Amino acid sequence: xxxxxxxxxxxxxxxxxxxxxxxxxxxxxxAEEVPPELPxxxxxxxxxxxxxxxxxxxxxxxxxxxxxxxxxxxxxGARLNRNERxxxxxxxxxxxxxxxxxxxxxxxxxKPSADTGSKSxxxxxxxxxxxxxxxxxxxDESYEEDxxxxxxxxxxxxxxxxxxxxxxxxCDICEKWFHGKxxxxxxxxxxxxxxxxxxxxxMKRGRQ
Length: 208
Fold this sequence. Notes:
This protein is mostly helical and 208 residues long. Helices cover 29% and strands 7% of the residues. Strand 1 and strand 2 form a beta hairpin. The relative contact order is 0.09.
């Protein structure tokens, strides 16, 4: 932290804090390419250093760093399919934020949903209204999604298209989606399943 604090000299030009894939960080000038290859982090993190309490300044830089990391994840996630994005953002949520590390705060635990009573990642995928099909961990349940977004989702059993009027359930192993009726799972049954395995994955596990 002391080294980082020293690198952010207010007398220097606009500086940015970049994170690299090898888990190192670098304080440097912004990229010269326009548009840049990746979203840009906050500019001028060094300018406010001496005008703020050290801890407050570090916390502010941490929040901006979290915003940048999420913007990079969304940028790269645009090239992934629905299940891959869901997995990516699930992995992100398994780690503390930079802000939580800097301020030594413990990540808040997820509370069970009031209307589904869900207690695990698996059960949050089940709902009697098909509009929550795309993992409630990532999508606000009050947000009504356009059915066109689900047009490429096919039932892993019958191959039928997604229909918001029907109950669907997602396998926690292969991440395929199924009509509840095709795998003989009702919304009531789904609420009591902590981790759902489709018939195919259940058979594979049985052979091992």
